[in-house]
Fold each of these.
Amino acid sequence: MQFQVSDELIERIEFLIENQKDEELLDLLEEIHHADIAEIITELELEQATYLVKLLDSQKTAEALMELDIGVRERILETLSSKEIAEELEEMDTDDAADIISELSLERQQTVIAEIQDEQHAGDIVELLRYDENSAGGLMAKELVKVNENWSVTGCMTEMRAQAENVTRVHSIYVVDNKDKLKGRLSLKDLLTASSKANISDIYIPTVDYVNVHTEGEEVARVMQKYDLEAIPVVDEMGRLVGRVTIDDIVDFIREEAERDYQMAAGISEGVEADASIWKLTRARLPWLILALFGGFVSVTVLGTFDAAMQEHAALFFFVPLIAAMAGNVGVQSSAIVLQGLANQSLRGSLLQRLIKEVLLSLLNGVVLATLLLVGGILLLGFDFLFGLTIGISLISVIIIASLIGTFVPIILDKFGIDPAMATGPFITTSNDIFGIIIFFSIAKSILEF
Amino acid sequence: MQFQVSDELIERIEFLIENQKDEELLDLLEEIHHADIAEIITELELEQATYLVKLLDSQKTAEALMELDIGVRERILETLSSKEIAEELEEMDTDDAADIISELSLERQQTVIAEIQDEQHAGDIVELLRYDENSAGGLMAKELVKVNENWSVTGCMTEMRAQAENVTRVHSIYVVDNKDKLKGRLSLKDLLTASSKANISDIYIPTVDYVNVHTEGEEVARVMQKYDLEAIPVVDEMGRLVGRVTIDDIVDFIREEAERDYQMAAGISEGVEADASIWKLTRARLPWLILALFGGFVSVTVLGTFDAAMQEHAALFFFVPLIAAMAGNVGVQSSAIVLQGLANQSLRGSLLQRLIKEVLLSLLNGVVLATLLLVGGILLLGFDFLFGLTIGISLISVIIIASLIGTFVPIILDKFGIDPAMATGPFITTSNDIFGIIIFFSIAKSILEF
C-alpha cells in the first residue's frame, strides 16, 4: 500500500471541510487507515480537525485519537463535550481509553466516565486508572479471551467466539479456574483437534509466562522480549487473571523509555518534542543548566584559589578547558556503558573486578592521550620538562578518576534504588569538571611548587 | 511461570556435567525455555557450555544460540565443527541462520553452507546474506504462508497446513499471483466461512502494507509501529513476495538502534557491552577522546592568544570552564531534541521558524542564567560593573550560538545524507567549547579593552 499523506490530499480535505462537503469527505477518508487519519488531523487547523473528528464515526476517530501526539489530542479533546469523549472511549480498548482519560483533569474524568453507557467498560477503565502507568497494570488491557478449566470443549468454542468479538487480536487463550486464577493457556490447534467431549482441564498447557499488576514496565518488556512473546497475561495479588499486555504497547513503551533515557543523558528533564512550546522547552532544559551553572560557579571559586600560579605558570590556565573536557567526556562514556549494563542486567562480576578493569582501561586510554598531548605540546608549544610532566600526569589521573566516577556513581545510585540515569550527562560532566580542575591544579602545585 | 536461573541450578548443572550424568541433565533441562538455556550457557565455563550444546538436541540449542550475546556465541561456535554448526542452522528460521552465518569468517561460511542438507533452506540463507543487515531484506525471514490467487479454497487449506508446519507464527496469509507478485492478504475468518468452491481471488483483501527489500530497518520499524503490525511482507524490485519481517525482530532492532544512538551521544563509536574486553572498549572510546583532545588543543591555542588579558583581568580565565560547560550543555540539549525530531519525522515548519524559535528560547534561558550568575557574582565575588556586563553578555551570546550550532549542525548533516547522530555528544561539546571561548574573550576584549 505504502500510503503517503500528501500536501495535495491535505489541501483537498481542507477544501472539502471549508465547503462542508460531508459526503465527499466520508468517501475520501473511508479507505484511509486510522494512523494516517491521525497524521491528517495533525496537519489541519484545530477547527478543521475538530470538524473532521465530529464527522467521522467514532470507531475510526477513536483509533486515530490514540495515534495523535499528546499535545494535539489535548487541544481536540478540549473542543469535545464529555458525552462526545465518552462515545470515543466506548470504541477504544480499555487500556487506550484509560490512557486518554488520565490526560484529562480530575473533574473532567468523572463527568466523562459517567457518560460511558457500557457499565462493564466503564468499570474496567476505572480499574486500570488505579495502576501506575509504568507498571504491568498500567500497560495492560482488560480485553482478552479466557476459558474456565471446567468447561467442555464444545461450550468453550461458543464462549470463545463471543469473547473474541471484543478482542482485536486473540494471540492466546488463557485458562482460569472457578476463582478466576490463571492456570495455563490453550493452543488453538489442541482445541480444534480435541474430542468434543473432553474438558479444558484435559488439554490445556499448564505452563504460562505471566506478570503481576505491579511488575515494572521495564521488566514486562524484558520478559516479553526474552521469550519472544506477543502477549503476556497479568495477574493480581491473588493470582487472578485481570488483563494482558500486548506487544504493540510494549514497542511503544520501549521507544518512549529509550527517548526518555536519551533526553535525560542530554540534560532534558521531561519528555519534550521538538515542536513543544518555548515555555515547555525552557522548563525541560533550564533545571540542568542551572545545576551546570552552579557547578561552573564552584570551578570559578576553585580556580580562584590557585591564582598564585598565574604569575609564573599562566599556561596552566590555558589547559583548563582541555582537562575539563577530557574529564567530562570520559565520565559520560563510562556512565553510558554502565547504565546500559544495568538496564540489560548484563553487569556481571564483583565491584572489585570492575574497579580493576576500569582503572586499567582508563590508564591505557590516559597513556595514549597523554603521549599525543605531549608530542603536540613539545612540537608546537615548546613544553619544558616539568610542565610536560605536570600536564601528562594530570591528564592520566583525571581520566582515571573521571572514569571511576562515571562508573561507580550510577552503580551506587542503583543500589540505593535511585534511577541511575540521573547520574549521566550534565551531572557527570559538571562534577567531573570540578574534580578534574582540582586534580590538575593539585598535581601542578606539587610538581611546579607555586 | 516466572522462572529464574538460580545459582543452585547452575551448580547442579555444573555437577552433572562434571560427572557426565547425561540422562539427568536432559531431564533437568527438558522443561526449561531456550532463552533460559541461553542464560545458563552464559554462566558456564566454555568447556561445560560446549558439552551442553553438544548434548542437547539441535532444535533446543539452535534457539538458545540465537539468544546468546555475540561474544559467547562466537566462542562456542569456534568449538563446533562445520557439520555441527550446519545442524544447528537447519533448525533455525532463515533470518536467524543468516545472522549467525554472517558472524563466521568467509571461509567458514562456505564450508558450513555446504554441510546444510536441506537445499532449499541453504538457498534461502544464501539469498538473505546478500542484503544489508539494516534493510528489510536483512531483517526478513523466508518463512511465511502464501497462497496463489487462482487456487480454490479447498486446495488452499491443504497447502496452507503444509506451509504452516515450517512457520513459528502464521500472523498473516499472503496472496500472490502466478508470478509470485504480492496481491493482498487473506483473513483466516473469511477463509473459514467462504464456500469451498470459491477461489482465493474472490475473497482476498487487496490492500496490504508491505516494504521493499531495500527499505531501511528504521523505516520498517516506523511503518510496523504506526500501523500496529505484527508482520509485514517484503517484496523484491519486481514486486515478488520474498519474505516477511516479524515484530520480535523489530523489537530487537528498535532496542539496538536506541542503544547505538545512546552510545553515539556518549562518544562511544561501536556497540560495546559493559563486559567487553579492555581492548574492545578502548577501540570504542579512544577515537572520540582523541577528537576531544584535539579540540582541547585548539582551545589552549585560542586562550594563548588572549594572554594579554592575564595581567589586569585574570578572573576572566577563572570563568572559562563555566562558559565552556554552559556552551557544551546547551549544545547537547539542542542537538538531542533535533535528533529525536528527525528520527520521529516530527520536525515541522520552515528553517526560519526554527531559527527564530531557537533564538527566543536560548535568549530566555540565557537571561535567566545570566541573572543568576550576576546575582551570585555580585554577592560572592564582588563583580564590578564592566566585569559583570562582560560575563552576562558573554553567557547569553554563548548560549544562543551554542543552541544554534546544536540545532542546525544535525539538520544540515541530515540534509546531506550524513547520519545526524554523529553531531552530538563529544562533537557538539568540543566545538561549542571552542566557539564559547572565542566568543567570551572577544566580547571581553571589546568591553574591557585589553
Amino acid sequence: MSRWQPNARHRLEQAALELFAEKGFSATTVPEITARAGLTTRTFFRHFRDKREVIFGGEEMYERAAELLVELPASDGPAALIGDGLSAIAEARFEGRRAEIRQRRGIIARDDALRERDLRKRAALCEALRTGFVRRGIGALPARLLAETSVTVLYTAVDEWLARDDDRPLSDLIRETLDALRTSIE
Amino acid sequence: MSRWQPNARHRLEQAALELFAEKGFSATTVPEITARAGLTTRTFFRHFRDKREVIFGGEEMYERAAELLVELPASDGPAALIGDGLSAIAEARFEGRRAEIRQRRGIIARDDALRERDLRKRAALCEALRTGFVRRGIGALPARLLAETSVTVLYTAVDEWLARDDDRPLSDLIRETLDALRTSIE
C-alpha cells in the first residue's frame, strides 16, 4: 500500500458512515472502518483525531461564521445580518450536501454521546456568532440574543430542509423561519 | 446516628456546595460530602443518585414547565405565553434563591462535564416547553420557535439577574429581555 492514498479522507468517511448506519456508532471500531476503506489505522489518524470527528468534522465552521458576519455590508442592520449571515453559512456548508447531512444527522440522533457533542457544537456556534455580532459594534445583550436566535433559525430551517424532497434552497427556508419566529413573538 | 435525619437533604446540599466551591466538583467525593454533613453515604444515596444531582436537582421542572403553559389563560396569545410562562417559572424556581443559584452556576461554569449536563438540561427544558405549546394548539413550527425563544430569554435574563445586586425581580428582566429580542430582529 503506498503511503499517499488518493481520496483517503473521503474513502474513510464513506466507510465510517456506512458502518455507523449498519452497526451503530458506538459498536463501530476504527480498525473496522479502515478495513472497509482498504486503508491503515495510521492513515485514519492522519485525517481524524477519533471516530467522532468523522461525524462532526473540524471546528473551522465557527471561526468562519464570525468572519462571515464581519464581512457583510456595513448597511446591514441586525435582522438583515441574521438572514444574510445564515444564508452565507447555508451556501458554504449545506447546499448540495443534503443526502450526506441527512445520513450524519440520523447517526447522531441514535447515539447519546453524539447528541451531547452536537449540543456542544451548537453552543460553540452560538458563541462564535455572538463574537461576530459584537465585532460589528452590536451591544452585549442584543449580540447574545441575535446569536441565540440565529442558531435557533439555522437548526430549525436545516431540519425542515432535511425533511423535504423538493429543490427549495436552504436559504429560502432560513428566511421563512426567521419570518415565522418574528410573527410568533409579535 | 438515628435513621431519620432532620434536614438531611439540605445539610448534604450545603456541604456539597461548600466542597465543590473549595476543591472543584470533580475532586470532591461523596464520602467527603457526608463527612462534612455528619451523615452517612447511605443517607446521601437516599436523597441523590450521584453528586451531579446535588447541582442539578431533579427533572421535575420540565414537566412543571409544560403544565404551567397549559394552565395559563386561554386568551394569552403566543407572545404573552412566553412572558407569563417564564414569569411563572421565575416565581416557582428562582425568586428568593439568588445567592444559592449563583453558587451553583459558578460551580457548573468551572467543570466541563457539568457544562455538558447543563446543555442537556437546557435542551430538555426546551423540549418540555415545545410540548406545552403544542398542547395549547400551537402549530409544530411556531411551537418549536417559541420554545427555543423562551429558553433563550430565560437563560439570558437569569444571567443578568445573577450579575445584579439590586432587588429587581427576575420576571421584570424576563419581560425586558423578550422586548430586547423582539426589537433586535425587527
Amino acid sequence: MYVVIVYDVNVKRVNNVKKFLRQHLHWVQNSVFEGEVTKAEFERIKATLRELIDDEEDSVVIYKLRSMPAREVMGVEKNPMGDVI
Amino acid sequence: MYVVIVYDVNVKRVNNVKKFLRQHLHWVQNSVFEGEVTKAEFERIKATLRELIDDEEDSVVIYKLRSMPAREVMGVEKNPMGDVI
C-alpha cells in the first residue's frame, strides 16, 4: 500500500510527529510524508500517531493508494523522490 | 482527474495561493486542497499557480489520481469531505 500523510498538528507536538514519520516515510515538504508501507507498518504508524496527536486539536489525513501516484512538482522540489527510489 | 495539491509557500504569497485554490478545490487542511478537475481546469490551475508562486522559493506538489482516494482521518477532520459530496 502507498500512503500520503498530511498533518496539521499544533506546534507543541509537531516535531514529535515529524520525527516519527521520518523514520518510516519519505518527507515531501512541510507537513507531508509519503511512502510504500506494508499493512502491518501502516497499523503501527497509525497506532503511534494516535499517541502523538491531540484528538481534539490536531488533524491527520492519510490517503491510501495502491501505488506511488503520478505527480507534478512546481517550484522547488524540497526532497526529490529520486533520492529514495 | 482527481488532484490532491499540497504546497509550501512563503507567508508573503500563501494567502493568494489559498484564496485561488479555494475557488476550484476542496480545502482539506492547512496547505492541502483536493478535488475532481477536468483536464482544462487542471491546466488553468497550474498556469495560475505558476504566476502566484516564486519558483525558487516555494513548492507545490500535485498528486494526480484517477478518482477520489480512500482516506483515513485521525483527530479533527478540519473540513469534512461530506460537505461537498
Amino acid sequence: MSTDLLSALADLIGPAHVLTGTDMAPYAFDWRQREESHPVAVLRPGSTAEVAAIVRLCAEARVPIVPQGGNTGLVGGTIAEKGTGAVLLNLGRLNRIRTLDATDYTMIAEAGCVLADIQAAAQAADRYFPLSLGAEGTCMLGGNLSSNAGGILTLRYGNARDLVLGLEVVLPDGRVWNGLRTLRKDNSGYDLKHLFLGAEGTLGIITAASVKLFPRPRQVETALVAVPSPAAAVALLGLARTGTGDSLSAFELMPRFAFDGSREILGRDQDPLSAPSPWYVLLEASSGMAGPALRGQVEAVLETALDQGLVTDAIFADSMEQQRKLWLIRESLPEIGRKIGGAVHTDVSVPVSRIPDFLAATIAAVTAYMPGIRPYPFGHAGDGNIHFNIGRPVDMEGAAYLAHAHAISDIVHEQVLAHGGSISAEHGIGNHKAEELARIKNPVELDLMRKMKAMLDPDGIMNPGKVLVR
Amino acid sequence: MSTDLLSALADLIGPAHVLTGTDMAPYAFDWRQREESHPVAVLRPGSTAEVAAIVRLCAEARVPIVPQGGNTGLVGGTIAEKGTGAVLLNLGRLNRIRTLDATDYTMIAEAGCVLADIQAAAQAADRYFPLSLGAEGTCMLGGNLSSNAGGILTLRYGNARDLVLGLEVVLPDGRVWNGLRTLRKDNSGYDLKHLFLGAEGTLGIITAASVKLFPRPRQVETALVAVPSPAAAVALLGLARTGTGDSLSAFELMPRFAFDGSREILGRDQDPLSAPSPWYVLLEASSGMAGPALRGQVEAVLETALDQGLVTDAIFADSMEQQRKLWLIRESLPEIGRKIGGAVHTDVSVPVSRIPDFLAATIAAVTAYMPGIRPYPFGHAGDGNIHFNIGRPVDMEGAAYLAHAHAISDIVHEQVLAHGGSISAEHGIGNHKAEELARIKNPVELDLMRKMKAMLDPDGIMNPGKVLVR
C-alpha cells in the first residue's frame, strides 16, 4: 500500500483510526485460531460517509477491503489473507442506534452496534429483538446481517435476513445505497437488500439496517425432555408447534454423549432426569402474554407425547435461574471438542423431516470410515440445523485424528447433499468453504452468483476469496 | 412472429396449446379493463422443460415474452402491449403439487397452481398456507410470487416472499435454475430467490416454488371495533399485538364513509354497532390451539382499550357465519368506487406509526385540490398498507372526475413519499407505475435494478416495459 494512500486515509478519518503496527492485533486474528490475518492496515471509520470515502480511495488504488464487525465469525470471513495487500475495514465505530420507533416496532441501527446492545435498547422500549447467539456480547449487527446469522430462535423468528426491513450499503464503487425503509409492504421494484444480506461483505459493506422489533415475551417455558430417538424428537416437534399455537421458540436436539459431556464440563454430578436416555431435547416456548396458559399448553404437549412413546421423561425450569441452568447445558456443547482433545465441527442443515435418516446415515458413514469414532450431532433441530460434530476415538491421538478432519467433514457433507441439505446452515462460507462451494454448487446458481459479483464488484476488491474463490 | 417460429412452438408443446385467434381472449385481457392486450400468440406449456424450450426459441428470435398466471393483477403486469410482438406465456398447465411434507411443514408446487387449491392441499394435510387475498379462487402461485402478493394476513405471516424456501426459475436465456430447496437455514452463497420474487417476470419465469406451511389455526376470533381516530387504531394495534401474544393475524382500518358504503352494497340496514363512529377496525386473532384462551385475550385487550378511550364499541363474531359476515364488510370495499360512480384507487404503504399523520395530511391535500372530494382510505393498517381511495364530489360527473385521476394519485403519492412510504405496497409496478417509479426511485437503487435487468436479460425479452421502463 502506498504511503500516499495511507496518508490520504489518515487525513480522511484521522490518524488515530488508521492502524498499521502492533495495534492491529485486536482486529487481525481469527476467532477459531485456524488462520493468520495480515492486513496492511486496519481502518476504523466513524461514519457512513467515511466508509464511502475509504472505499472510493481503495477502489481507485485497487486495494482489497475486508469488512469486519465483531470478528466472531467461524469461517474465516474477516481474514485478510497474506500477500493480498488488503486493508481491514472495522465498522466498530459506527455504533449508533439511529432511531427506535416502538409504535412501528422498528429500529434503525448502525453496523457496529453490538448485538447485545441492540437487544437491550429494544427491551428498554418494551420491545424485543429476537436475534440471539452465543457471541451476542461481542458480535455486531453488520456481521450478523452479512453472514445471515441464525441462532437459537430461528424456528420462531427466522434468520437474520428475515428481521430486516431495509439497508444502507456502501457499494464497491463507493456510492451509498440508502435503502433504510421501515415498511412492512413495499413492492416498488426488485428487492435488493437480500443480495447484500448473507453476502459476507463480498458485494458491498452494510453500514446500517432497519430491523423489525417484536412484542417482548412475558412468559417463557423451558423444558428438558428425554426422547428415545431423533424420529421421536421430530414427531414431538410437530406436536409442540401445533399444541402451543406456534409459540415454540427453540427446539435443540442432543445425544447422550453430548449431554454427558456438558455435565462434565459444568461439573454437574447429578443427572437432572431420572434415567439415562439416548437423546435429549431442550425446548422453549414463549408468549407475549404473561400467565399460566403457556405452561399448560407445553404440559399437554408433553403428556400426549408421553402417551405416544415419543418422550420418556421431562423436567420444567421453574425459575429464570433454572432456565439459565438448562440453557448452560446447550451452550457448553461447543466446548466438548476441546474437552475430549480433538473433534471435527460442522454446520449443516437438512429438511426437518429428513433429520432422522440423515443422522443414521451419517453416523454409519463416519463410523465405517473410522471405527471407534464418536459422533455427537446436536443443534437447532427445529429448523434442521445440525452441528454434526465428531470426536476422536478414545485410543487415537488428537493430532493424528485431526489429520482426518477434511476427509471426515467431506463424508458429512456428502450425506448432507444426499439428504437435500446445505453444507453451511448458519455460519456462512467465508474462505473455509469457498472452494468446496465452487465444487458442489448447482452450476447455474454458481454462474448467477459470479455474474452478480462481477456486476457489482468488477475489480474484485470486496472481501476477495470469500464465498466465491478467485 | 414468423410462421417458422410458430410451427416450431406448435411442434414443441402441441398445436392445441399455441393459440393465435379468438381463443386468445380468455388470456388477452386486463383484469381492471384499463388496457388492451395484443399478444401475437398465447402459449400454454405443460412442463418446466417446455417453458425452457419456449424461452430458448423466443430468445433466439428476440420475441418478447409476457409470463402470466391467473391474470388477476391490478397494475398491467401481464399485458402484451400492442406493437411489441410479444407472446403471452400462460403457466396454467403447470398446476401440480409436486410434494407435500407435513412433518417438514413444506410443499413444492408449480406456478400454475391456483392459490385456493394450494390452501386446500395444505388443509387436507392438517397444515396451513397463510397467503390469502380476494382473488385466491383464480390467482396462481407463480403470479403471487412474481408480484410478492400481500393480502390480509401479512401482519402475522409476512408477504408472499416470506413464505418461500426455494424456487425453480427459467432464466431469460432458457437455462433452468433449480433452487427448490426446503431448508430453513441455508447460508451457502447469495440468496438469489429474492431477486425473482417480486420481479414481475422481468428477470425470469418462476415455474415452481417450495413454500413454508404452518400449523392450522384452530381458534379464530374476529371483532368489529369502533375507534375514534386512526391514532387510536394504531395504539390499539400495539395493545393487541402484545396482549394476544402476537396472535393478531389481521387488522383492517376503514372510515365511516367506507363502512356505510359497504352496508349499502351488502343491503344491510342495521348498523351492527350501537352508534356511528368515524373509524372502524376489523381485527382477527388466530391460534393453533383450540379453546377459550384467545377470546379471553382479545376481550382483555379491548377492555383495556375501552378504558383508555381507544375504543368506543366492539362486537365479536360468535360463529363462522358471523365471521364471514364481518369479513364481507371489508371485502366489499373495493366495490365502492363503482357504486359511487367514480373513484381513484391507490395501493400505498407508510410506516405503521406514521399512518395517522399520513392520513390527515393526505385527506387535507386532496381536499385542497378539489373541495367536496370524498377520501375513504382503508386497508391493512396492521402492516401500513393503505388503499387510499377517493370518491368524486357528489356534484361532479364521474368522467369529469376521472380526468383528474392522475393528478389526484400524484398528490397521494407525494404524501406517501413525504411520510417515508412506498407508491406500491402489494400490487406491484407492472406497466401502470413503471414511469413513475423511474421518476421517484432513489437513483442508486434504480441503477442497480437496471444493471440487474441488463445482466440477466441483456436483450430485454422478459416482460418488457414492466417494472422498468424501456
